[in-house]
Amino acid sequence: MAWIHGKNTVVKVATADLSTYTDTSELPRTADSHDVTTYGNDAHRKAGGLLDGTFTMSGTYDNTAAVGPRGKLEPLLGTICAIIRQPEGTGASLPQDSFDALLTGYTETNAVADMVKWSASFEIDGDVDSTAQSA
User: Fold this and answer.
1) Least confident of 50-59, 63-72, 126-135
2) For 69-88, b where at least 16 C-beta lie within 10 A, e where not — what string?
3) Taxonomically, which superkingdom (predicted)?
4) What is the pLDDT of residue 41?
C-alpha cells in the first residue's frame, strides 16, 4: 500500500488554480435510495437512484484580490462552474475528478486569535468524470 500526502492536491475552479490558497477539500458522493418494499417482505427492499454530491474547499485568506479565493470565487456565487480536482497532484495516469458545480456559498471567517479563513461550498451539477489524467 502506498500512502499519498494531501499536500500534492490540485484544485481548479473555472480554470483558476486555487491550490496555493487551499488547505482542505472534500468530495462526498451520494446516491438516492428508493424503498421498493412490497407485500410479503419482512424487511425493507432498496433500489439505487440518481447520483449526487457536493464539493467543499477552504483555506487561509490571502489578500491578493485579483487571483485569490475572494477575487475568483465571490463573483461566481450562484453560478455553475467547472471544477478539476487532482488528489495526487498533476501527472500522467494520476486520478482526477472533473465536474460542473453550483457555487452555493462563500464564507470568510475572522477569529480574533487566528488568521482569516475562507471556505466555499458547491453542489455537483451532472456527472463526475473520474478519468485518470492523460500525459
Assistant:
1) 63-72
2) bbebbeebeeebbebbbbbb
3) Bacteria
4) 97
Where exactly are the structural domains of the chain? 6-129
Three-state secondary structure string covering 24-65: EEECCEEEEEEECCCCCCCCCCEEEEEEEEEEEEEEECCCCC
| Residue found by looking up cell 478519468 in the block | 131
pLDDT at 64: 74
Give CA–CA dist 68/88, Å, rounded: 22
Residues in the chain: 135
The share of the chain scoring above pLDDT 70, in percent, equals 98
State the pLDDT at residue 4: 86
The answer to whether the CB of 13 falls within 8 A of the CB of 72 is yes
Region 6-129: CATH code: 2.40.30
Give residue for cell 417482505. 41
Q: Is the pLDDT of residue 63 over 90?
A: no
